[in-house]
Amino acid sequence: MMKSLLANNKRSISSWCLLIAPPKQAAAKKKPAKQEPAAASWSSAPPKKSSSSSKVTPAILENRKIITDMLGRMGIKENPFNFSDDDEDSEDSEDDSDEEDIEDVISTPGSKQQNSKADEKAKKKTLEASTKGEKCGLCGKSGKLTRTPCCNNVICDDWDNYVLFSQANNSCSRNHDRNTVCSVHYMQKHGGPWQTCQVCKRGSPPAMYAHGATNKYNFSPLKNVKLIPFKCAMCGHTSTDKFDFPTVGSGGYYCKKCIP
Which pTM does this prediction carry? Predict the structure, then answer.
């Protein structure tokens, strides 16, 4: 009787020891857990450049300089954008990367990042095909073209020509996007054509609505619209051309000579 109790106790004790401290041989077979990569920080090395990055233009470099200066004035010494002046890639390398992107999507279906890249490439090729042999509906040039998201008209793909805070009118895409009722109507998701939209008409000051509906950056400007003159809050200069008053402050509009 005593011998059987001791044998049972030995077996139970040995089983508990195995649970608390497994044998070294069993522990050696266990695979080490994979370590997660450390989270990226502003001070860490910048990510490897993609071969499909767009060509850096002088205007983009100027915009980067402006942003870097603004960050410095705000006391932010480390640049979160990892700007560099030598990240120009040729258009040939961008074209060569198309096949690699397609192969990546095929090899790992369901990847949101790779699917979005494929969608962007397909959209770009569709735009290029739809604008082939066309000319910009605003300036008449036939270079790098795209289509407006608001009215699907052919326009220069020249956003990168604009320098921040310059108030320049050297970009057809930006001029239509920022200075027309057509673009505002689209971005605010109003229904129907913008030419007959009463929400757009009531939602803007009369002078601004008349300017946005009739200026030269519209593809189909409204006619028979009464233009209301703008007045400089400092010198009293008046004009029906909004572009003569690039700045709007708490006191009203300011002409180019009186920009505060």
Answer: 0.55
